[in-house]
Amino acid sequence: MLEKVIFFGTGAGMPTNERNVASMAVFLEESGNFWLFDCGEGTQQRIIAAGLKLSKLRAIFISHLHGDHIFGLPGLLATRGLQGIKSTIDIFGPDGLGSYLNNSLNYSSTHIPYSYNINEIKPEKYKTKKLLWEKDSYKVYCAALNHQIDCFGYAVNEKYVKKNILVNRLSELGIPPGPIYKEIKRKEQITLEDGKMLKTDDFLKKSVIMRKISYCTDTMFSENAVDLSKNADLLIHEATFSNDEKQEAKKSFHSTIEDALEVARKAEVKHLVLTHFSPRYQKTKNSKYNWDSIKKEVIRRYPETTFAEDLMEIKINL
Q1: Within this chain, do residues 170 and 96 fall inside the same structural domain, yes or no?
Q2: Strand, coil or helix: what is 243?
Q3: In this structure, are 125 and 271 located in the same domain?
Q4: 89: closest CA among 101, 100, 103?
Q5: Is 121 within 8 Å of 131 (Cβ atoms)?
Q6: Distance of CA 274 to the CA centre of its chain
């Protein structure tokens, strides 16, 4: 089930001492398998710093082809090969992603000793939210955002069946807590030490839980972002500029913090995480921007907001 997210880069445009450029992992289960969203330069170093293994990476989703979102991709794929990883990986992104990646690998004489599937997203097909990919209990939806070039937001929906042991019913049969409880959750039937067989459904209470994460960057305010994020447990949305920089945001087709808040309010999300901050908001004494005051005011108005930092981990609560 959707467990948590970790941010590998929360800056916009270029890396700084404080923030790397865009990349984020979504963890699918306790085994540590994860999907990657965007892959700016330096992403693989951040993955190493977080203590993660590239062998656990199962899919990559690229929002658009600006360099701060893709320059780390060829190197990351090459490193997987150097580590002897053989598992296939699925890669999604806009038209042109295949050419960029294949040319980068060809010109650098880089051999990838495993297969990777490039799935290019056609903008005319995803003018509004549509299903992009279905894998196990997960459905990934995609929709065009509002940026200078083709750019897509993603939503990961999960239908999770939670199983709770009916302890009292098992106690009545003289079955105490122990390893057998795990077997009851995993199997349709079990055999006790005395040879008696039990149908596990009789000792489980099942409840269906829906979880949802949406990822929207880079974009001006977009109704498609609202649609992708409806009732999301977690919305990760770009906030390149503070509210005082509206004209700069409009000029570069990015969002202000207020734009991201409007998406979160309209979509009625449970938790908003802001990311993709301009380098101008570095925590330096010489900066004319009081970043701490900006953050405090936003959180005062919208307490369910978090300002992402590199290597920040956010769990997805039930």
Answers
A1: no
A2: helix
A3: yes
A4: 101
A5: no
A6: 13
Reduced to 3 states, what is the DSSP secondary structure of residue 164? strand
**What CA–CA distance (Å, rounded) separates 16 from 29?**
32
Nearest-angstrom CA–CA distance, 291 and 242? 9
Q: How far apart are CA 34 and CA 4, in angstroms?
A: 10
Range of the domain at 299: 4-163+206-315
pTM of this structure: 0.89
* Structure tokens given for 184: 């009851």
Give the integer Cα–Cα distance in Å for 141 and 228. 7
**C-alpha–C-alpha distance, residues 220 and 125, integer Å:** 20
Find out whether 170 and 183 touch, Cβ atoms under 8 Å.
no
Among candidate residues 152, 176, 205, the one where a domain is terminated: 205
Q: How far is 82 from 73, CA to CA, in rounded Å?
A: 14
Whether the CB-CB separation of 74 and 108 falls below 8 Å is answered with yes
Are 220 and 191 members of one domain? no
pLDDT, tens digit (0-9, with 9 covering 90-100), for 115-126: 999 999 999 999
- 261 and 169 in a single domain? The answer is no
Q: Are 234 and 214 in contact (CB under 8 A)?
A: yes
Catalytic residues: 68
Q: Which of 205, 231, 265 is the last residue of a domain?
A: 205
Same domain for 215 and 284?
A: yes
Angle value at C-alpha 174, between 169 and 179, nearest 5 degrees: 85
Residue 119 and residue 11 share a domain: yes
E strands, the chain, are 4-9, 23-27, 34-39, 57-61, 89-94, 116-121, 130-135, 138-144, 152-165, 189-191, 197-199, 204-216, 234-238, 272-275, 305-307, 313-315
pLDDT tens for 121-149 read 999 999 999 999 999 889 999 999 999 99
Looking at the structure, do residues 117 and 186 belong to the same domain, yes or no? no
Which pLDDT tens digit goes with each residue over 12-61? 999 999 999 999 999 987 678 999 999 999 999 999 999 999 999 999 99
Q: Give the total number of structural domains in the chain.
A: 2
